[in-house]
Amino acid sequence: EVPLAESGGGSVQPGGSLRLSCVMRGFNFDSLFMSWVRQAPGKGLDWVASVSSYNRDTRYAQSVEGRFTISTENTKNTVYLDLKSLKVENPGVYYCDQGSSDTWEDSPRGQGTQITVSS
Fold this sequence. Notes:
Layout: E1 4-7, E2 10-12, E3 18-24, E4 33-39, E5 45-52, E6 58-60, E7 68-73, E8 78-83, E9 92-97, E10 113-117
């Protein structure tokens, strides 16, 4: 089993929406920080959002605040990222990361799921 398995990517038009899911196996899901990070085409990894599975505290990159929502469903060991009002600058590979906004760079992440935004 893959420890972190993302799904839900796809191609949308500007202004569209997607929901990404990440099932996390082998972790104590009730006391985790989890993040979504993105790699834009030709760029490095950027942090997008984080959530605590313990108290549901969330943090967002300024560029996505108000448009993206990170959440967890602890009974399913799943973290979600709801993306709304997608922009042409949002595409890339989105990775689920088992880290906080401070630790994501050194934490395990999945294989990623691709998002394309084009009209």
